[in-house]
Amino acid sequence: MESLYLLIKGCITNDYKSQKLFYEHYYGFALKTVFRYIYQYEKATDVVNDSFVKIFNNLPKFNLSKDSLDTEKILMGWMKRILINTAIDELRRGQSAPEICELPGYIWEENDRTQNSDQKVLYKELICEIKRLPQSYRTVFNLFVIDGFSHNEIAGMLGISEGTSKSALAKAKAQLKKFISKRFTEINHGATVRQ
């Protein structure tokens, strides 16, 4: 915990080595967070870099406690809010045509040590299906289900009504349920054929 405290302190004083270490350590987390909203890899990396500029500029405002065991969790939650808001700002500016692409493999490996290979494959497939949702459904789904925002908060972030948020979530869930049902039917059929 002491090392994270010192790393953040170094970033606050604009120490290049500290900022580089911080950036490299949290880059995978940041890219995975942004990639749920911005589905173009190059655009997502731009948003991540813009977010890190905001993070470094606002780190002096981060409530840093040397004694807190939860400093990293609190820091990541704080960073996630900046990442999501920066991604939403980019979506508001308007996206070009949809481009479904994959993140580099090393990004999936970071922080996923607890998942077995089948879980990782299903997670990647589910993320790809979420990306196929219309942008409005995808954004609400990510904000509500994955990032834990309430419909009231989502409405405020996106400038929509709570009812619109709830409707978009219901439609997103219905489309994803069809995918999951189809996927499990395929898996079960494949297991039956092999027997």
Structure, described:
The radius of gyration is 19 Å and the shape is globular. Helix 3 crosses helix 4 and helix 7 crosses helix 9 (162-194). It contains nine helices and no strands. It has 195 residues and is mostly helical.
Helix and strand pattern: HHHHHHHHH
Indicate the structural class. mainly alpha
CATH class of the largest domain: Mainly Alpha
Strand percentage, roughly?
under 5%
Q: How confident is the prediction overall: mean pLDDT?
A: 83
Describe what is shown at a glance:
The protein is mainly α and 195 residues long. It has 9 helices and no strands. It has 2 domains: 111 residues, Rna Polymerase Sigma Factor, Chain: A (Orthogonal Bundle); 81 residues, Arc Repressor Mutant, subunit A, CATH 1.10.10.
Any key phrases for this structure?
Rna Polymerase Sigma Factor, Chain: A; 9 helices; single chain; 2 domains; 195 residues; mainly alpha; Arc Repressor Mutant, subunit A
Give the helix/strand layout.
Elements: H1 2-12, H2 16-35, H3 41-58, H4 71-93, H5 105-109, H6 117-132, H7 135-146, H8 151-158, H9 162-194
Helix pairs in contact: 1-2, 2-3, 3-4, 7-9, 8-9
